[in-house]
Amino acid sequence: MPPLRILAIHAHPDDIEFQCAGTLALLLERGCTIHMATMTAGDCGSAELGPEEISAVRRGEAKAAADLLGAEYTCLEFKDLAVCVDNDSRRRVTEVVRRTRPDIVITAPPVDYMSDHELTSRLVRDATFNASCPNYVTHQWDPAPATSRIPALYYVDPIEGVDWYGVPIEPDFTVDISRTFELKLNMLACHDSQRAWLRKQHGLDEYLDGCRRWSAQRGQLIGTTYGESFRQHKGHPYPHDNVLLEALRAEG
Ligand SMILES: [Zn+2]
Questions:
Q1: Distance, CA 15 to ligand 1 centroid (Å)?
Q2: Which end of the chain is more exposed for a tag (fewer CB within 10 A), N or C?
């Protein structure tokens, strides 16, 4: 199998690290190219710094985490708590899909604890579809050509793995990330502004401890130390083959 191109796109800086960085590290080992993108720069992620200041800090943290992995990083410059589904937003996300030409897209789940996550999921789903329509115009600077096909689309876990009613959302499959877990944790630790904020609130290193607990819980599903779980979008006309699992099983 030729090396695959992977686009991981979630709402805020640190969401990708929490939910799928261990899997991305495994894919990278198998020769895949990884592009990480966040919808926002995390402008509401501070009780002390203003939106411009904290955004600058968090763009740097996200870039540092991507560098640690060996991935490219793009921020789409939406604003926290203001991601919405409209045609301008669809065009902006479609342009990222066209520029990165992914075989696999990993994104936020359709149901999650807050709307930036849910609407990111919707926009990415629309963008993966729209990107292959040549007559769909993104109105972006120097627009990329339409993609040749619709990529395989995967959703990460919602926070705590539950829907709005606290009912567990069962994943389709879980990836053993025990070998890449330390890298995932180191990537998460790059988001020092968020780690420090939580540490101040809880008096504990809840940022990293929470990630360790959740990854261990997912690992239990398949009898490994740490895991990350996914669901695959199977609506018409998306690929139904589990391209992600096939890529993980391929020779490095
Ligand atoms: Zn988030």
A1: 5
A2: C
Query: What are the E-state strand segments in 54-181?
Result: 72-78, 104-107, 152-156, 173-176
Q: Are 229 and 221 in contact (CB under 8 A)?
A: yes
Element (H, E) at 124: helix 115-130
Number of other CB atoms surrounding residue 213 within 10 Å: 11
90 C-alpha to ligand 1 centroid (Å): 19
What is the distance in A from the centroid of ligand 1 to the CA of 156?
12
pLDDT, tens digit, 9 for 90 and up, residues 40-85: 999 999 999 999 999 999 999 999 999 999 999 999 999 999 999 9
Encode 166-185: b = buried (16+ Cβ within 10 Å), e = exposed.
eeebebebbbbbeebbebbb
- CA 130 to ligand 1 center in whole angstroms: 24
251 Cα to the center of ligand 1, angstroms:
33
**H or E segment at 36?**
strand 33-40
Ligand 1 centroid to Cα of residue 38, in Å, is 9
Residue pair 33/207 in contact (Cβ under 8 Å)? The answer is no
